[in-house]
Amino acid sequence: MRGKGFLGLRVSRVVLASFDLWATLLDTRLFYREMAARLSLKTGLDRAAAEKLLLEAYRAVKEERAAGRVRGERPVEDSLLVAERVTHGLLSPDDLLDAAAEAAYKVDARGLVLPGAREALTVARESGFRVGVVSNVVFWHGQVSRLVLWRAGLRSMVDFQVYADEAGCLKPCTRIFREALERAEAGPGEAVHIGDSLREDALGALMAGMKAVLVAPSLEPSVNPDLGLAVARRVDEAVEAGLSLLGLASSRRRGTRRGGEG
User: Are 135 and 22 in contact (CB under 8 A)?
Assistant: First the structure.
């Protein structure tokens, strides 16, 4: 693939920019709020109580995943069982699946797009990247995320999508990143992954031999080529950091500094 980048650079090899979906490109909290509205109708709980339970269940799933107790080959099914357990049966697997599917159709999907997300995808494409989504799943399958991405108006801006339930592997497992590399026909040294989780996104990508940019609004932006790791406050700024890690960007920066040896 050849393309002229937004920094005036010509890319003469296939390079991949993969993005986490939820909390990187799309607002998870707003989607859960819409799910809570659907759950309220199903369970009789008021919306605030349903949203609180949903977020508690989500945090519990994240803890279980970090402990290795959510299987990569059954991530949605295991997550639903965790939610049912920690909410003492108030949120059933069937209700959660139905609420997610209904929310995917009812939510203002364009309102889910996080600041800088559309710009990030645009710049990545203009810079000659193959652009992919590499995302974990929790209470819904990848097909629901595909629908939301389409309704948000971002589907045409990505070349492919890989979800954990389809890959049979949860980030930071390297297999899901390797599948993205295969889809892009790119080598790991020619790829950068951008996401909001240090463990699932940054560590997983680095273990797969890729570069990684952590989107963290509360951290100081930095680029550390030796580690292959950068930090950006917004996802659109993360693309330029990724170009720098791949040796494709000029020395110009927007509010970033190079990291030290640590």
Answer: yes
